[in-house]
Amino acid sequence: RLVNVDASLIAQAPKLMPHVQAMKANIATALGLDPKKVGIKATTNEKMGFVGREEGIAAMAVASVDLPE
């Protein structure tokens, strides 16, 4: 059983924070979770690497699951 999801998005542009609530709602719907169980953080890469040069976006996510005994 999926308990929660926490995602981090790394991008110089576009600004992601104005879209976080809609993203949380869409992810929650897709996974069958309460939106309160979905965490999204957005940050920049301080102009370093391909993300800093605005050549791409990076994402990392962790999910907690509850396994039956």
Strand content: 25-35%
Radius of gyration: 14 Å
Spatial order of strands in the largest sheet = 2-1-3
Provide the helix percentage.
Answer: 10-25%
SS field, number of helical segments: 2
**From the helix content, strand content and strand pairing, which structural class follows?**
alpha+beta
| β-strand number | 3
The string of secondary-structure elements, in order, is EHEHE
Low-confidence stretches: none
Subunit arrangement of the protein: single chain
The largest pleated sheet is described as: 3 strands, mixed
Measured distance between first and last alpha carbons = 12 Å
Overall 3D shape: elongated
Mean pLDDT: 92
The gist of it:
The chain has 69 residues and is of the alpha+beta class. 23% of the residues lie in helices and 33% in strands.
Structure description:
This protein has 69 residues and is an alpha+beta fold. Helix content is 23%, strand content 33%. The chain has helices spanning 20-31, 49-52, and strands at 2-10, 38-43, 58-65. The chain has a three-stranded mixed beta sheet with strand order 2-1-3, covered by helices on one side. The longest helix has 12 residues, at 20-31. The protein is elongated and about 45 Å long. The mean pLDDT is 92.
Question: What attributes characterize this protein structure?
Answer:
3-stranded mixed β-sheet, 69 residues, 33% strand
Walk me through the topology.
Elements: E1 2-10, H1 20-31, E2 38-43, H2 49-52, E3 58-65
Parallel strand pairs: 1-2
Antiparallel strand pairs: 1-3
